[in-house]
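quick q for whoever's on today - can somebody do inverse folding on this one?? i tried earlier but teh output was garbage lol. tokens:
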């Protein structure tokens, strides 16, 4: 089995076995809070979208989001929801994005995908999201900065590491601690809005 197949099998088995503690049944409160005050329009990629709650939330606020996930089970469930507007879903691996998707998004929304990726692959993650965005495209991210359990996934990330990984491609436009979070995640998340140079 290749590394890619085993990654797909790991995540798909979690969905098939209903072992999905991250699945909350609705879009991320920090995203909803952001969309109430700012628009996030155009084509927006949502890597590791799972059941697609964030995708549909973005669509509700006028974006044209594309939810990407390696798990066919997660995507079948995402597609089973009533469409909101212009959302779409694609089965694929962020690390091997088709060339047709390069430099094709105005925005990317990161939520619980980076923290699910092995930390050794974070530089590849930063490169992949930079490659997918158009020039001056924006990455809006909810980062997990505090997780008590050292055994990931999820794996936490520090502010210094965020700077180190993303600042070669992006400038940080804004950062803040969300006022609203899923129960149990309060004070553990940090938001960043970064613009690709
Ligand atoms: C912790 S889950 C979070 C799902 C969703 N964002 C949520 O909050 O409900 C991580 C997701 O990332 C997906 N994933 C992991 N590695 C991926 C990759 N390389 N490319 C695309 N999706 C990936 C998994 O299949 C899984 O759905």
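ok took a stab at it. sequence:
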């Amino acid at each position: 089995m290749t590394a890619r197949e085993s990654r797909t099998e790991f995540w798909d088995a979690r969905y098939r076995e209903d072992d999905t503690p991250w699945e909350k049944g609705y879009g991320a409160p920090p995203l909803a809070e952001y969309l109430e005050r700012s628009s996030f329009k155009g084509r927006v990629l949502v890597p590791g979208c799972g059941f697609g709650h964030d995708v549909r939330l973005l669509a509700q606020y006028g974006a044209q989001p594309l939810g990407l996930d390696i798990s066919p089970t997660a995507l079948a469930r995402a597609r089973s929801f009533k469409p909101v507007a212009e959302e779409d879903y694609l089965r694929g691996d962020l690390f091997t994005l088709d060339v047709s998707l390069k430099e094709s998004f105005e925005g990317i929304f990161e939520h619980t995908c980076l923290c699910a990726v092995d930390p050794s692959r974070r530089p590849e993650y930063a490169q992949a999201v930079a490659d997918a965005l158009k020039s001056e495209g924006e990455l809006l991210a909810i980062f997990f900065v505090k997780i008590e359990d050292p055994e990931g996934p999820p794996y936490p990330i520090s502010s210094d590491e965020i700077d180190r990984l993303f600042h070669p491609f992006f400038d940080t436009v804004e950062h803040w601690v969300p006022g609203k979070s899923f129960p149990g995640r309060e004070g553990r998340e940090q938001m960043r809005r970064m613009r690709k140079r």
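fwiw The longest strand covers residues 133-144. also The mean pLDDT is 95. so keep that in mind when u check it
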